[in-house]
Amino acid sequence: MEEKSVSAWLQRAAACLRQELGLDPDTARLEAQLLAAHALGVDRAWLVAHGEQAPERAQHQILAALLQRRRAGEPMAYLLGRREFYGMELHVSPAVLIPRPETELLVELALARLPTERPGRILDLGTGSGAIALALARARPLATIVAVDRSAAALAVARANAQRLAPARVNFVLGDWYAPLGDQDFDLIVANPPYVAADDPHLQQGDLRFEPREALAAGADGLDALRVITAGAPAHLRAGGWLLVEHGHEQGAACCALLAQAGFEDIGTWTDLAGLPRVSGGALPRG
To answer: CA 77 → CA 33, 58, 257, 260, distances in Å?
Structure first.
């Protein structure tokens, strides 16, 4: 069905999203506007000013395809190709995990351990879209930053984001965790690794259905990647250097145990804005 006006399409799309995805009216209206603006190549203000304008046939086809994908539950970030994170607009694709607000806690904790007035070396493991590495690069221009990911498709997204947001500030490396780094050492290691149990039913629900499984699931208990990261960190950290990792809200105690086993001190867990344990970390002893 081709509506006679943009306004009519917006009304129908919002109604569909309310009914089929269970969105509240304000969210459904906003998503319909964002989809229409993306399809038509305009901003939301244009939609209000030109609501009675009739979309062209090709535009109708794009609108219909986007709405159908959203009705199937595909995340808005993938449909629009972008997501805001720490004041940056990041390009995203199904090759990368969608950056989430709770990960900004990891950035804040890292910045608190990185003096602005002197250089430092930072490693971002499993960089995905480059969200963490680029946020740190923009806030700490003196730092040297290395970002690793084993997915070439993810690194292509990260490099494209870096070209727009922090040109020549991050060295992106293809490889599995520490494997491509040789004997490089760092003042700080950060990671938002996979931490969902492989059989967790949430992987079949919501946005997670569409995100790369290798960026989400990590073994039977969700701790496989965290084990590798914590065990390998001391070989790549300078004395006094910090490791900070994001994890599931029920994994704080397990992460702290892994950090203690690896010889870290000053171990702690920090909560996100929802009050849930979200990041754990510790410092390598100075000697």
So the answer is: 14, 23, 35, 37
Main-chain phi, psi angles of 284, to 5 degrees: -80, 135
Spatial neighbors of 117 by CB under 8 A, at least 6 apart, are: 142
Model confidence band, residue 3 (pLDDT cutoffs 50, 70, 90): low
The answer to whether the predicted template modeling score (pTM) of the entire model surpasses 0.90 is yes
The CATH number of the structural domain formed by 6-73 is 1.10.8.10
Residue 125 tokens read as 């493991």
pLDDT at 216 over 90: no
* Spans of all domains in the chain: 6-73, 96-283
Residue type (1 letter), 260: A
CA distance 168 to 141: 11
82, 68, 58: which is closest to 12 by C-alpha? 68
CA dihedral 14, 63, 74, 273 (to 10 degrees): -60
Pick the CATH number of 96-283 from 3.90.1170.20, 3.60.110.10, 2.160.10.10, 3.40.50.150: 3.40.50.150
- Identify the sign of the CA torsion 17, 18, 19, 20: positive
CA distances 276 to 60, 77, 112, 142, 248, Å, are: 43, 24, 20, 32, 9
Query: Whole-angstrom Cα distance, residue 217 to residue 221?
Result: 9
Which two three-digit tokens encode residue 201? 């039913």
DSSP 84: E
Determine the Cα–Cα distance for residues 112 and 114; give it in Å rounded to an integer.
Answer: 6
Residue with tokens 């994001």: 246
CA dihedral 47, 48, 54, 57 (to 10 degrees): 10
Q: Which residues contact 17 (CB under 8 A, 6 or more apart)?
A: 23, 27, 28, 31, 32, 70, 71
Write out pLDDT tens, residues 256-274. 999 999 999 999 999 998 9
